[in-house]
Specification:
heterodimer; A: about 70 residues; mainly alpha; 3 helices; B: about 160 residues; Arc Repressor Mutant, subunit A; 2 domains; 7 helices; globular; RsdA_SigD-bd (chain A); Anti-sigma-D factor RsdA to sigma factor binding region (chain A); sigma factor (chain B)
Chain lengths: ~70, ~160
């Protein structure tokens, strides 16, 4: 009779729980900074792209949105 | 917040945000129209608003009617904004971000846009999406990792 060993998350990666939690909190801090429109440096491609999207969205005055129906 | 959400999802047409801003206006009108039928079910009002916004954006993407966009009058004065080269680079990168976000699962895309572009906190984003703040933080970490992976795959290809 053979028994299967269940693979836990700890066996699947090299991170310990504290490392994963640290990474999650670091991501949260980065996204908070982007949400507050603060400059976020670094070589992270995903953060750079999100920063470009935020800059593009904010580049045209939000107040230019008309409240009158278009004709 | 609604305008930013629509702009992030729909992008520019002919260099302008007319379509996205019109959809944002439709969202506001729809919210006002639906207010008499709104019942407080214990969820934040923002989730009601972004639910409508999500549907309006989906409608706009489905119709994909790209009508002629009236050009604004030429500005009569110095432009304090970024130069043409910087503007084009930013536009290309923003469009690249939209393309990659479109390849994420719906929840991950909504989460990143609400969190970063609309500027909601993890708690507020969780209220809109029906998730706990802790679940938002884990999901946004995974979404960012997936976005990073997609960006790296594209840079290699």
């Amino acid at each position: 009779m053979t028994t299967k060993r269940r693979r836990t998350a700890r066996h699947l990666g090299s991170y310990g729980d504290a490392d994963v939690e640290g990474e999650v909190l670091r991501t949260d801090a980065l996204l908070d900074a982007l949400a507050r429109r603060e400059p976020v440096g670094g070589a992270d491609a995903a953060i750079r792209l999100l920063g470009a999207l935020v800059a593009d969205v904010d580049s045209q005055r939000l107040s230019s949105v008309s409240i009158t129906p278009s004709t | 917040m609604v305008v930013r959400y629509c702009r992030a999802r729909l992008g520019r047409v002919s260099g302008q945000y007319h379509i996205a801003d019109d959809v944002a206006q439709e969202v506001c009108i729809a919210v006002l129209s639906a207010l008499p039928r709104y019942r407080d079910m214990g969820r934040p009002f923002a989730s009601f608003v972004f639910g409508i916004a999500s549907h309006k954006v989906a409608d706009a993407l489905r119709s994909s009617v790209r009508s002629a966009v009236p050009t604004q009058d030429l500005p009569d004065g110095p432009d304090e904004g970024p130069g043409p080269e910087e503007t084009v680079v930013r536009y290309i990168e923003a469009q690249h971000a939209r393309d990659l976000l479109a390849r994420l699962p719906d929840t991950q895309r909504e989460l990143l846009i609400l969190r970063v572009v609309s500027g909601l906190s993890a708690e507020e984003t969780g209220n809109v999406l029906g998730m706990s703040p802790g679940a938002v933080r884990v999901a946004q970490h995974r979404a960012l990792a997936r976005l990073r992976q997609l960006a790296e795959l594209e840079s290699i290809a």
